[in-house]
Specification:
The chain is α+β, with helices and mostly antiparallel strands and about 375 residues long. About 30% of the residues lie in helices and about 25% in strands. The strands form 4 sheets. It has an 8-stranded antiparallel β-sheet with strand order 14-13-10-6-5-18-19-20.
Length: about 375
């Protein structure tokens, strides 16, 4: 039996997120478990006159390839990707990974070899084509969210179909403020961090790239970051779960990094030169996402959070940092997580996860429905 909520989500993705037009070509990627949503997307695409294509992946097979592939294979893969991607207008990536640790056995030196060799095609797809990413419910995600599968299925569809038009309007004052801000200071438990965002554009996110959505991001001036940040949210990268990450900066560079897996953390930060500089600073505002679940598409949107991201900068808010790493690390500043403050040009704009200046109060959870 078809679930009408999946049809509604497909419509949001195609008409709001991607704004697909008749005759455009769309690639949909996912795991086999995402087939119910893929079918709705294909049906809706044909209704709109869009030309859909799809492919299903397998995480276990990708792990075997990543473990054994050599440079020649990945150079050819990059070439094939470029040939396909040039013919596309948009793509939807639906994630439903059954095992977060599947890729953890791929040696670090393999990642350092392989990732730069497919960076051209990955960057081309992200920078030149319309795209949107989302998760599809599965038992693994439900377990991380500490919910039954049925409850999580309902929760995911709820947070993915919030009123993004209202969110867009509410984000505009924050974007305007960030665009005219120079100095940012963030304080909290284990955190006292300063940096500049002067002349780097702020970008609103309201369901056009990620679903669920709800953040406004920019990037720090590359060499302006100084101080220490301690993250209070677990994070997953390359198959490893990390907790209690602490980073210390001098003139933009991470000079000290510690966590419950300090060795693996530093191996990732040593992937390339840019991995030890920050490529994104963002403030999360989705009112329906409250608790971390070790999935970045959800966690980076948590109400009352911010993320501060080692690695590659986005084209829309480019500070010049280049890396094959882009690792969104999240800190929640609501009181139950220890609180904290964000200052723009020495003015307190958010305390303990709530905006305190009048023009930004429309982004607080009680204002966003």
């Amino acid at each position: 039996m078809r679930d009408p909520r999946l049809g509604k989500l497909a419509e949001v993705l195609l008409t709001h997120s991607l704004k697909m037009k008749e005759g455009e070509k769309l690639l949909i990627t996912g795991e086999y478990t995402t087939k119910p949503l893929v079918k709705e997307l294909i049906r809706k695409a044909y209704d709109l006159g869009v030309i859909p294509y799809f492919e299903f992946g397998d995480q276990e097979l990708m792990r075997v390839i990543a473990t054994h592939a050599n440079a020649e294979q990945m150079i050819l893969q990059n070439k094939w990707n470029m040939e396909r991607y040039r013919d596309l207008d948009a793509f939807i990536s639906i994630s439903s990974d059954p095992n977060d640790a599947e890729m953890s056995e791929v040696p670090g030196e393999q990642w350092q070899l392989l990732m730069p060799l497919v960076k051209e095609s990955n960057d081309y797809l992200v920078e030149k084509k319309k795209w949107v990413l989302l998760n599809y419910p599965n038992p693994s995600l439900a377990q991380k969210a500490k919910m039954s599968y049925d409850t999580f299925f309902d929760y995911l569809l709820e947070v993915c179909t919030v009123d993004y038009k209202q969110m867009e309007e509410a984000q505009k004052p924050l974007k305007e403020l960030m665009d005219r801000t120079d100095k940012v200071r963030i304080t909290g438990e284990g955190t006292d961090l300063t940096f500049s965002i002067k002349d780097i554009p702020a970008v609103m996110c309201f369901g056009e790239r990620n679903i669920p959505d709800g953040e406004v991001y920019t990037a720090p001036v590359k060499d302006s970051v100084n101080g220490t940040i301690t993250y209070n949210t677990p994070t997953l990268y390359r198959g490893f779960s990390f907790d209690s990450i602490s980073l210390t900066f001098e003139n933009g560079k991470i000079v000290k990094a510690a966590a419950d897996k300090t060795k693996e953390l530093n191996e990732i930060l040593d992937t390339d030169e840019g991995a030890r500089f920050i490529g994104e600073f963002a403030i999360g505002v989705n009112p329906k996402i409250k608790e971390p679940m070790l999935d970045i598409l959800f966690d980076e949107k948590i109400s009352g959070s911010f993320h501060f991201t080692p690695g590659q900068a986005y084209e829309g808010a480019d500070n010049g940092n280049r890396s094959s790493v882009h690792w969104d690390m999240v800190c929640i500043q609501r009181p139950e997580y220890g609180g904290g403050e964000i200052y723009f040009d020495d003015v307190l704009i958010r305390k303990d996860g709530l905006f305190v200046i009048e023009e930004l109060k429309g982004l607080n959870p009680n204002a966003l429905t």
